[in-house]
From TrEMBL, chain A:
InterPro entries: AAA+_ATPase (IPR003593), ABC_carbohydrate_import_ATPase (IPR050107), ABC_transporter-like_ATP-bd (IPR003439), ABC_transporter-like_CS (IPR017871), P-loop_NTPase (IPR027417)
Domain ABC transporter: 11-248
Protein name as it appears in the record: Ribose import ATP-binding protein RbsA
Signal peptide: none
Pfam families (UniProt xref): ABC_tran (PF00005)
EC category: hydrolase
Species classification: Bacteria, Pseudomonadati, Pseudomonadota, Alphaproteobacteria, Hyphomicrobiales
UniProt keyword Repressor, yes or no: no
Family in the record: Belongs to the ABC transporter superfamily.
PROSITE patterns linked: ABC_TRANSPORTER_1, ABC_TRANSPORTER_2
SMART domains in the record: AAA
Alphabetized UniProt keyword annotations: ATP-binding, Hydrolase, Nucleotide-binding, Repeat, Sugar transport, Transport
Keyword Ubl conjugation carried by entry: no
EC code: 3.6.3.17
Automatic annotation (TrEMBL), chain B:
GO MF: transmembrane transporter activity
Domain of life: Bacteria
Origin species: Roseibium album
The keyword Transmembrane helix is assigned to this record: yes
Swiss-Prot/TrEMBL keywords: Cell membrane, Membrane, Transmembrane, Transmembrane helix
PANTHER family: ABC TRANSPORTER PERMEASE PROTEIN YPHD-RELATED-RELATED
The protein, known as: Ribose transport system permease protein RbsC
Protein localization: Cell membrane
Underlying gene: rbsC_4
Length: 262, 340
């Protein structure tokens, strides 16, 4: 499932540090992500997982540490540069401009233009209809400002924006927190589909069900540190909860696979 | 202008009565009602001559209002335009006095205005000072520099060429009568009005058809979202403030040219008229909302009101009161609609 050691990881974050005044939000954290792998990033609120994700997506700059993408050092200074490297993020807040309509949001920051350099709104609208309807066949009101759309529709725009443009590394920050059951199932299908095409996904989630259904591996953060990276077969929900809450595995823990042998 | 905006899909200007078009429609109706009311009050109001006078008088506020609209859409405000207008005029005047030909001297004045706007943009984005405070500072600085450079005295005798921009007109038809005063058949369209129309069309095109315009809306709508989407938010804001400064410089040159004198204390409180024009036209000080055609309607509401009230013999003090009330009513109507 996880082909380690064969090629350079898609993303390799090493020794990442971020402090705000005296507080270490991220404390020497390292994290690898391989192509076609879904890694769950777990932890309490304030454990540093969002901060770590923001560093990778360029929304925040680390004080220390290096990020390698496909083995090459990537100096990510802003979201624009991250996107150029194929790093896309679905933010929990969705990061939509409320006054603009769906196509304008979908293409925000990389608008399609005509030969004269004008905005090609007709083409953007056409593309938007096809990509949004692929995710949600009932998507309507593409002309309306997105503030008037439902939570599910807004989520669809945020997702579409992340996967439309040649994504290689996808960060999903609580992608299902605001969704109903059918939309959650849609997101789960999407994650599986993207994984099969070789995209690496970092899934920040509180939902243990999602994590165990979708992830190949979990990375748990506690008080700014990476307290464990485990293949999903090796741990139980209780093990993961223990890591999240106490920052360590239960004292009697052995990898699940080996339990049988004993 | 209207055409440009109708083509732009992402703005709420469809044929359904969206908030934006409702506001614009009510502003337009207000303007028409004002014109009708004043026409009944005074026969001289609805004449070609007076119409052209209104055009001329509105052009300065209109130019300032266009720049202001760009800044307001980004979620900012530019309080410095009145002072920058004066400083630009002073720079042009001093350049003319120093022997620079009129056209390049005026260009220099506009560049000075743009430079003030650029500083505003830097202070707002790089020093992270709120737009209100940053441009308040620039308002004092630009006025101070204008007064210091001139010793607070007007600069006059700037040559005939200096007056052309403000006083010239296109398609002026004059009939020779043989007497001292030739008969004016058609006074011509004043250059300032043509300039205003050209700038308004260019600004509407920029806002609705170009990427920078889209980014201006996005920045004002949700700055964080725009940044995370890869919009270079700082650059976008600096662009808006610089353009506002440049347009203030242009307005300053138009105004001083009309007076054929540079007045360093000209343009006091003009920023408030410009803000009023934008707000009456539907721009929201919260950012993300506003458009050029609305601001033009707003500018003309103010212009027609001033002109009409003047003709009716209403004092300038009462005029201020009336415009103040209109600003509040315009925003109130908008709020009621948005609350639903």
């Amino acid at each position: 499932m996880v082909q380690q050691g064969e090629s350079a990881p898609l993303v390799q974050m090493t020794g990442i540090e971020k402090h705000f005044g005296g507080i270490r939000a991220v404390d020497r954290v390292s994290l690898d992500l391989h192509a076609g792998e879904v890694v769950g990033v777990l932890g309490h609120n304030g454990a540093g997982k969002s901060c770590l994700m923001r560093i990778l997506s360029g929304a925040m700059i680390a004080n220390e540490g290096t990020i390698r993408v496909n083995g090459e050092i990537a100096d990510i200074q802003n979201p624009h540069q991250a996107r150029d490297l194929g790093i896309e993020t679905i933010y929990q807040t969705l990061a939509l401009a409320d006054h603009l309509n769906a196509p304008a949001n979908l293409f925000l920051g990389r608008e399609l233009k005509t030969k004269l350099g004008n905005l090609d709104d007709r083409k953007m609208m056409g593309e938007a209809i096809s990509v949004l309807r692929k995710l949600n066949p009932n998507f309507k009101n593409l002309d309306d400002p997105v503030s008037r759309l439902s939570g599910g529709q807004r989520q669809v725009i945020a997702i579409a924006r992340a996967i439309y443009f040649n994504v290689k590394i996808l960060i999903m920050d609580e992608p299902t927190a605001a969704l109903g059951p059918s939309e959650t199932a849609m997101v789960a299908d999407l994650v599986k589909k993207l994984r099969s095409t070789g995209i690496g996904i970092l899934l920040v989630s509180h939902d243990m069900h999602d994590v165990f259904e979708l992830c190949d591996r979990v990375v748990v953060m506690n008080k700014g540190r990476n307290v464990g990276s485990h293949g999903i077969e090796d741990v139980t929900k209780d093990d993961v909860l223990s890591l999240i809450i106490k920052g360590e595995l239960p004292g009697d823990w052995v990898p699940r696979g080996r339990e049988m042998v004993q | 202008m209207a055409n440009l905006e109708r083509e732009a899909l992402p703005l709420p200007t469809g044929f359904r009565l969206s908030t934006g078009s409702f506001h614009k429609l009510s502003a337009l109706l207000t303007l028409v009602a004002l014109v009708i009311a004043f026409s009944f009050g005074n026969d001289a109001f609805l004449t070609v001559n007076n119409g052209l006078t209104v055009l001329l008088q509105t052009s300065v506020i209109g130019l300032l209002g266009i720049g202001m609209t760009l800044v307001i859409i980004t979620g900012g405000i530019d309080l410095s335009v009145g002072s920058v207008l004066a400083l630009s005029g002073v720079v042009t005047g001093l350049a003319v006095k120093a022997g620079v030909p009129t056209a390049p001297a005026m260009a220099l004045g506009i560049v000075a205005g743009a430079a003030c706007g650029l500083v505003n943009g830097f202070v707002v984005t790089k020093m992270r000072i709120t737009p209100f405070v940053a441009t308040l500072g620039m308002m004092l600085i630009a006025r101070g520099v204008a007064l210091q450079l001139t010793g607070a005295a007007p600069i006059s005798r700037l040559g005939e060429a200096f007056g052309i921009l403000g006083n010239g007109s296109l398609f002026r038809i004059v009939e020779k009568t043989g007497g001292i005063f030739p008969k004016v058949v058609f006074p011509g369209i004043p250059y300032p009005a043509i300039l205003l129309a050209a700038v308004a069309i260019a600004a509407a095109y920029l806002l609705n058809r170009r990427q920078i315009g889209r980014h201006i809306y996005a920045t004002g709508s949700n700055e964080e979202a725009a940044r995370l989407s890869g919009v270079l938010v700082d650059r976008t804001k600096i662009f808006a403030y610089t353009l506002s400064g440049a347009l203030a410089g242009l307005a300053g040159n138009v105004l001083m040219s009309r007076l054929v004198t540079v007045q360093p204390n000209e343009g006091v409180m003009y920023e408030l008229d410009a803000i009023a024009a934008a707000v009456i036209g539907g721009a929201s000080l919260m950012g993300g909302v506003g458009n050029i055609s609305g601001t033009m309607i707003g500018a003309f509401i103010i212009g027609v009101l001033r002109n009409g009230l003047n003709m009716a013999g209403v004092s300038a003090f009462i005029q201020q009161i009336v415009i103040g009330v209109i600003v509040i009513v315009a925003v109130y109507i908008d709020q009621i609609r948005n609350r639903r």
